[in-house]
Amino acid sequence: MAPTFKPLLLASTLAALLSGCGESTSSSTGENFSDSKDNGTISFDQQALLVSLTDNVITPTFEAFANKAQSLPAQVKAYCDLETSFDPSMQDEAQKAARDEAKLAAQDAWRETMVSWQHAELMVVGPLLENDKSLRNDIYSWPNASTCSVDQDVVFFEQGMINGVAYNIRNRSDKRRGLDASEYLLFNDELAYSCSSVAAGDILANWNTRDEQSRKVARCQFAVEVANDLSHSAQTLLNQWSGEQGYSEVLKTAGQPGNKFETQTKAINEISDALFYMTEELKDYKLATPLGLFANSCGLEACPQAVESVYAKHSIENIKANITAFEQLFLGGNGDAAATGFDDFLDEQQASDTKQVMLQGIADAKVAVNALEGNLQTTLVNDQAAVTNTHEKVKVVTDQLKNDFINKLALELPKTSAGDND
């Protein structure tokens, strides 16, 4: 539902939210949490919430991502075709300009796809959860990406074989695939491999001595393969999500006989678990770690190389998309007053004060991240206070999420957050 702002709680409430270094919770479940099938403590129309979140938010987000992912291969191939035919010895400025323009177009297509995916990152449910999030990781393996693995697979793909078996990217680990691999291939201008000499292995033994153009061609050709694989993964997500047998129907019919969810509350809990991306991945990994609030590669100090998107310098855009997606799930859409969201659920549970604090927190977080200028690496050096402010504003929302939100809606904390005092 569309937000309506009222005066916030007593000053003491806000002070409690903003005080201390971290969030805390003393329970893994809301005070009204029930595992029973009827869950009689809840009078709210939970099915209406499930239908609204599925049809108004999650399905359009997955469809938008698939559309972007499926258009990416053509853009990457258009660039790679020009890179492959480019002859540096000819010094043809028109040919060079065309190649460079095509590369910029491929990079822009990657940016659009990444923004779309960063919305979906707040909606890791169903197919994206299964098999230890294998499909999610095939699409985007951050923060466990490995550029060394990508370097190796550039050559494996070029050779077409691995240990006598034909190369197939779908049999490769997620660290060699997805949006993070695409970022490295499209945005990294350093052509030397990123591995240590020990990790490089025989496959990269001659890489750094090859001529520059052959390495560019090898990388762009693998970038096409990665983009095609990403498109396939996006279609897999849609196939598993959509249709009468898709996961979207599972959510919308939760609690019915034969459904995997015995109660509608359990289905809602899976969606609320997805909101906690804002706590660990966004607040802690994307902001606190580069700020040095947690250990990073620089120790315990601000560290530009610890940001999410090092090569494309897309970290701020990713954070903006995450916050926007959180807001959409919270409201049940893009501010449509008729949509049913978690805000309505809170109102029904006499927790309008919690709703207002969260809405104000979301608005403040958006203002804070919109005030960041340039890219996050530069801002950490030139205006660390602005990044710290963004972290603090996000933390106001996540404090509420881990405490009053869960308690008032009688939900259960994700296993990764239960008992977490950070």
TrEMBL record:
Aminoacyl-tRNA synthetase in keyword set: no
Gene Ontology cellular component annotations, sorted alphabetically: cell envelope
PROSITE patterns cross-referenced by the UniProt entry: PROKAR_LIPOPROTEIN
Pfam families: Peptidase_M75 (PF09375)
The keyword Signal belongs to this UniProt entry's keyword annotation: yes
Predominant place of localization: other
Protein name: Iron-regulated protein A
Organism: Pseudoalteromonas holothuriae
